[in-house]
Q: What sequence folds into this?
């Protein structure tokens, strides 16, 4: 019996019970880490900039494999907010994929995030929204680091 570890595109995979045989090789795959999809809320992004938190390294620390998303309506909110570090915000936004919310035309941003919370990890500082979320969430702790709940 052999035990082998390797890293694939979907994450770290552990192959157990490789049994050499003339006709059959029996494999059991266990994926330890899948790529998580993270939606960044407007207030979370603004607070990370305000408290000078390195968003990308902190999310790397919490989730090894991840994709960052932002709602197109959140981009509209960010354009209306006055931020001193506008250039830094633009660099942040280059690394996010944009979720089109045109199919949710009658809902607000918080309602859309609540609906998507089952499939995504939500990064927010909004107290009311945190209570309504069904899945995992990322929050800011002590104005220094991020925590996955």
A:
């Amino acid at each position: 019996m052999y035990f082998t570890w390797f890293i694939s595109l979907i994450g770290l995979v552990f192959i157990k019970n490789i049994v050499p045989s003339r006709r059959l090789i029996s494999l059991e795959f266990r994926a330890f880490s899948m790529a998580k999809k993270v939606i960044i809320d407007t207030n979370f992004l603004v607070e990370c900039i305000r408290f000078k938190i390195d968003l990308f390294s902190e999310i790397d620390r919490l989730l090894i494999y991840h994709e960052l998303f932002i709602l197109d309506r959140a981009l509209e909110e960010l354009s209306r907010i006055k931020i001193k570090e506008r250039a830094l915000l633009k660099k942040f936004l280059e690394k996010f994929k944009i979720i089109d919310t045109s199919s949710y035309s009658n809902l607000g941003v918080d309602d859309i995030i609540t609906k998507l919370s089952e499939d995504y990890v939500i990064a927010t500082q909004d107290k009311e929204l945190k209570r309504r979320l069904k899945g995992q969430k990322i929050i800011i702790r002590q104005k220094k680091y991020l925590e996955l709940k």
Notes: The chain has two domains: 2-31, 36-148. Residues 1-11, 13-33 have pLDDT under 50 and may be disordered.
